[in-house]
Automatic annotation (TrEMBL):
Cellular component terms (Gene Ontology): exocytic vesicle; plasma membrane; transport vesicle membrane
Entry GO MF terms: calcium ion binding; calcium-dependent phospholipid binding; clathrin binding; phosphatidylserine binding; SNARE binding
Protein name: Synaptotagmin-6
UniProt-listed Gene3D superfamilies: C2 domain (2.60.40.150)
Domain C2: 171-292, 303-436
Spans through the membrane: 6-27
PANTHER family xref list: SYNAPTOTAGMIN, SYNAPTOTAGMIN-6
UniProt entry keywords in alphabetical sequence: Calcium, Cytoplasmic vesicle, Membrane, Metal-binding, Repeat, Transmembrane, Transmembrane helix
UniProt-listed InterPro entries: C2_dom (IPR000008), C2_domain_sf (IPR035892), Synaptotagmin (IPR001565)
Length: 441
């Protein structure tokens, strides 16, 4: 019995030993390689991320300080006695070819003709500090807050608020007249028939209207109808005769001014009508009835005449040429009924006059012909800062010269002056000519 129990104990111990050996071998063969594999994969991921970071840093350093790094490398290679000079130079050339170097731009030399122009500028343009790169300059955006309402985005045009130009162009009733030309006597007959729906100028709600008639540009000869008392729909039925040659009719304008008569004060102007092309309104061979709106006006518009000039700009040379060609229908400034006109051209920059030049004087004429060129040297970068003021002057031997009329051309000008300037810039090296009406100062 003792031997049997001892044998059973030995068998159990041997079984446990075998089980322990089997578990140790299983752990050694299976669990440890998988653990090492996971650790090695994690280390590989960390190593790859570190390598990427190093490569990114190297790229940034290469872009930002490539030149300084190369210069330092070249200096070190020059001090090394083991490398021959020819090898060092070839290495430097090879590295410089493979490195992207920022393109260097040079400032164009300014023309000597433009030195005087820049000296007169109120504020100098520092051309040396200008950036000629392709990237646009960064614009600082104003800070905005979320949820803030911008009222300007929701503005709507009010019905009551009218455009000032429309306000100035409003009508003040209508006027009816006829035109007829007598070819034998060379006389234009203007017959004022009636007016309709005139505005009230008196406290009683009525007016005392009458009409003045001019055939521009001649203002010396004028006619006037009778005054009609206390009515807004007067009937005139009066005829007036203007002697004028047939070839001058195309350049003449009919000017009708409607006034309200006041016995004790200055007469109030109701409005005016200007008919520029007489042949468009009627063939003038027979009497034709014409209705026109009376345009609002507070004073009689004076016809000062017109000037024709051409503009030409050469960008490569920086040269602006204004050619004064001729004037027509200028206002008479002398007691003889004529003027002694000349043209003065001023170069302006930000409201300041830099230079002025003038043409010759034409004696005793209202339609002078000049054909004279006036040249200004203006750099292309300053063309958007300048403008030209053209003044037609009347020369007086005694006393001051009087201004007949002016016009302005430039980027900041209005109407035809701005359009003429933009057309000149759009077609460089080509003279662009236009007629410009003269206005008061």
């Amino acid at each position: 019995e003792l031997s049997v129990s001892l044998l059973a104990v030995i068998v159990i111990v041997c079984g446990l030993a075998l089980v322990a050996v089997f578990l140790f071998l299983f752990w050694k063969l299976c669990w440890v390689p998988w653990r090492n594999k996971a650790i090695s994969s994690n280390l590989a991921v960390l190593q790859s991320e570190a390598d990427c970071t190093k490569e990114n840093m190297a790229d940034k350093l290469k872009d930002a300080g490539a030149l300084s790094f190369l210069e330092a490398a070249v200096k070190i290679s020059h001090t090394s006695p083991d490398i021959p000079a020819e090898v060092q130079m070839s290495m430097k050339d090879h590295i410089m070819r493979r490195t992207r170097i920022q393109r260097q731009t040079t400032e164009p030399a300014s023309s000597t003709r433009h030195i005087s122009f820049k000296r007169h500028l109120p504020r100098q343009m520092h051309v040396s500090s200008m950036d000629y790169g392709m990237d646009p300059p960064a614009v600082a955006e104003p800070p905005t807050s979320i949820g803030r309402i911008k009222p300007e985005l929701y503005k709507q045009k009010s019905v009551d608020s009218e455009d000032p130009k429309k306000e100035a162009a409003k009508t003040c009733g209508k006027i009816n007249f006829t035109l007829k030309y007598d070819y034998e006597n060379e006389t234009l007959t203007v017959r004022i028939l009636r007016a309709f729906d005139l505005p009230a100028k008196d406290f009683c709600g009525s007016s005392d209207p009458y009409v003045k008639i001019y055939l521009l540009p001649d203002r010396k000869r004028k006619f006037q109808t009778r005054v009609h008392r206390k009515t807004l729909n007067p009937t005139f039925d009066e005829s007036f005769h203007f002697p004028v040659p047939h070839e001058e009719l195309a350049s003449r304008k009919l000017h009708l001014s409607v006034f309200d008569f006041d016995r004790f004060s200055r007469h109030d102007m109701i409005g005016e009508v200007i008919l520029e092309n007489l042949f468009e309104a009627s063939d003038l061979s027979r009497e034709t009835s014409i209705w026109k709106d009376i345009q609002y006006a507070t004073a009689e518009s004076v016809d000062l005449g017109e000037i024709m000039f051409s503009l030409c700009y050469l960008p490569t040379a920086g040269r602006l040429t204004l050619t004064v060609i001729k004037c027509r229908n200028l206002k008479a400034m002398d007691i003889t009924g004529y003027s002694d006109p000349y043209v003065k051209v001023s170069l302006l920059c930000d409201g300041r006059r830099l230079k002025k030049k003038k043409t010759t004087i034409k004696k005793n004429t209202l339609n002078p012909t000049y054909n004279e060129a006036i040249i200004f040297d203006i750099p292309p970068e300053n063309m958007d800062q300048v403008s030209l003021l053209i003044s037609v002057m009347d020369y007086d031997r005694v006393g001051h010269n009087e201004i007949i009329g002016i016009c302005r051309v430039g980027v900041n000008a209005e109407g035809l002056g701005r359009d003429h300037w933009n057309e000149m810039l759009a077609y460089p090296r080509k003279p662009i000519a236009h007629w410009h009406p003269l206005v008061e100062v």
